[in-house]
Amino acid sequence: MDSPTAATTPTVQADIARHKKYQRLIAAAHQAGPPPTAVAHPCDLSALEGAVDGARLGLIAPILVGPEARIRAVAEQAGLDIASLPIIDTPHSVASAQRAVELVREGKAEALMKGSLHTDELMGAVVKTDTGLRTARRLSHCFVMDIPGHDDPLIITDAAVNIAPTLAEKVDIVQNAIDLALILGFGEVRVAILSAVETVNPKIPSTIEAAALCKMAERGQITGAILDGPLALDNAISPQAATIKHLTSPVAGHANVILVPDLEAGNMLAKSLTFLAGADAAGIVLGARVPIILTSRADSVPARLASCAVAALIARHRRTLSAKAVG
């Protein structure tokens, strides 16, 4: 197999080389092949560069959806070569989001990527009842974190979509994350249901919901993983902290998926890891017909590329399931 970084610039190669966990994801996605990806409104440098870098690496096949003149002006100013990328001209960001979603519904795109429009504009088009991309599963967001000093990737959910999810909604959120972990090849998926403490306390609702989710997993209502909770962050990821607290389970100290109580906790955790611990966070929305790549202008190059890689692996998984169903 050719090196997955062969077509990238030296700077991009160096950035990827520092993130071995993301390297593995990108190499696997390179083998999966690039899914056609509708990029909604890539009208600034960060958004357009992310799509171009993903194409160079063979992770996605971008279809640029937005005002053509603006897209070409950004590319020319930044020296980005977009000659081989199709562009679908739209007048404004709302129209870009709607047309990008239509491309998915028409079977012309296997993934969706946020450009320089607001997240609410893109997700508004996704969740429309008659013309969107909703499924029976609730939409939720996962960060796939590459944390220095931590051996494996860590999934944190939900830090971007569901503000204060109910117990019923957390069932879908955790199942989405488990399914993602299995697609990414985590092997044994170990879910820590996070709270401030590791004991059930009626005064802390998240501890009661954690206990309920664990029982639901025991009864087969949540599948594909081992769940434990409530757990505080230290005894979820630190074997030493788990030992000190006398917690004995396959999850305590060894979690590779973190279910947070609410969006505020998840957002603070992910951003603390990013800006204080030097981690990178690849963002993906699950539960729609296709994976949705959510990137931020603050994202590093490896994080943007890893987001594309995650989407490519999900798209390949769905193609495989569809082929089996037809067969």
Distance between the termini: 28 Å
Q: Give the biggest beta sheet.
A: 11 strands, mixed
Within the largest sheet, what's the order of strands? 3-2-1-4-11-10-5-6-9-7-8
Structural class: alpha/beta
| Rg computed from alpha carbons, rounded to a whole number of angstroms | 20 Å
Helix content: 40-55%
Oligomer, anyone? single chain
Strand segment count: 11
Q: In sequence order, what are the helices and strands, one letter per element?
A: HHEHEHEHEHEEHEHEHHEHEEH
Shape category: globular
Query: Which segments are poorly predicted (pLDDT under 50) over 5 or more consecutive residues?
Result: 1-7
Overall residue-averaged pLDDT value: 92
The fraction of residues assigned to DSSP E strands is: 15-25%
Count of helical regions: 12
